[in-house]
Amino acid sequence: MIDLSGRVVIVTGGNSGIGLGIARGVARAGASIAIWSRRAERNAAAIGIQCDVSDEGAVAGAMRATLDRFGRLDCLVANAGTAGKQPFTDMSLAEWHRVLQVNLDGAFLCLREAARVLVRQGQGGSLVAVSSTSAIDGAPGQQHYAASKTALLAVMRALAVELARHQVRCNSLLPGWTDTELLAGAKTHEKFVTATIGRTPVRRWATPHDFETVGAFLADPSLIFHTGDSMVVDGGYTIF
User: Any catalytic annotation for residue 145?
Assistant: First the structure.
């Protein structure tokens, strides 16, 4: 059993989809949870703090609110993200920036704020960035999404080296096809779903539940030698 009793974990975008699965997992392991999200109506169901992760001031304010409530921080999971799909030749610079502003700039702001707290506390901790198997496979029509998720892998590897002396572990999580609100449109295309399931050895898409234990694992303070990793959770899709 992973024991996170007395630990404080922030999950951005943790009120739906993969983020909700992670939040449930760390909560069941005993951690206190702060969910940062733009959608305040969903935050009411958890210990929630309204936050637009692409807004530097909002991120700083959310961290202050979290520390005021819990007094400390042990782990931040940078999960909040957005997506879009259109032919590359039609993609505007504004659309490119829209996705990177949330997925990359937002992750940077949250990770930086959390790193400052963990280094200042001097007790170690964990930083996790939720990437995607789009960082490995080709993602037609989603070059901005893929670029943002690939960049996160480099950010986390660099952070793992820089923050190791502070006992702060830095890892990436790469989910595969998952039944979430973000992929609701894709799920309506039966031929596409059949094709992706056929390429997945476990013969199904993931659900948020599949990330509960994974989230607790990545937040586990006893795993002091686990850092700089890119953990793929995709039912075998990328190796088959």
Answer: yes
